[in-house]
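Figure 2 data, in text form.
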Amino acid sequence: MTKLYSLFGGTTTDTEVKSVEVNQIVQMEGYSYSRYVVHKITHNQFGYHYHLINLKTLDFHQSEIIKPLSQKFGIGMYYDDKNIEFMTEEEVAELYAKAQAKHVDEMEQQRAEEKRREEVRVVGREWLKNNLPTDAKAIIVGRLKQDESDSQTDYFASSTLSNVILGFSKHTRDIFSEMRKHASNFEGTAYLAEYNEDYEHREKYSMGAGYYLGESKYRGWIIEKEPIYNRERTIEEFAYTAGSPDGIHIKPNKTGKINNKIDYTDNISPNESEQQSTIHIQSDNLQFEIVDYSEKAIALFGDTKPIKDLLSAMGGKFNPRLIYKETKKAG
């Protein structure tokens, strides 16, 4: 005798006892409240299995336990033992034909969609083979998240609707200033380019979401860094994104090629370039000076807070008592 033990109420169900008959109406309680008809019953070493058709969606379903509605306890499949309903054999046969046709049509659509996706991946693989730098250690990715949470049941989850490639990195360190730099490459993530401490999420712990830049891991755009451990595997993983019409947002250099090197000479005057003592760097968000401090060190003075993570990762150390132009200055 085979028994399945219910987690609710401490009751057991003997799966060797047939609870309903073919053509009988049953219903889902506690979740979707959908109605089904039993179109077939099979039996194996685990007991009876009931094959169902959703009366509304025409989807196929299967259940091993169908209990009387008078014994309802929690979510599950039930039959109304006080008002047993049946469909005629002809009605069930017609319903089965429609459900089978729907199933075949969905399978054809899935095959067509997979064919389309593979065509996109072919384009993406070729692009990545030609453009993924050989010295790249990580890909900086933007992800559009959709909230799938259900607060009533304390269920928290999200799905990814879209991915975009924002840039490449020569290291695997999670640095938010680097993520912000690439955020401006794409309209959807552009607002993340401005420094906002609330957008910096450090969740590298058990069950955490890792390091990511964004308002929430459940909704909207976030930016993450994906390490490249195996080049071929990475190409395969991001082939669909790279092949999609709106999947790549990397700023090219003046020659039209991808350039991942930071050019510090754009804002250097001829005299400063010749002296190589002080470099003034200014952008829309940052303004600071790089000084040849000694034979073994350089110093940065100015608005360095937005890139403090990057400087620290490069081995930089903050010092509030540096000497610059004969006065004490933090840098």
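Caption note: Helices lie at 89-131, 176-183, 231-237, 239-243, 270-275, 308-313.
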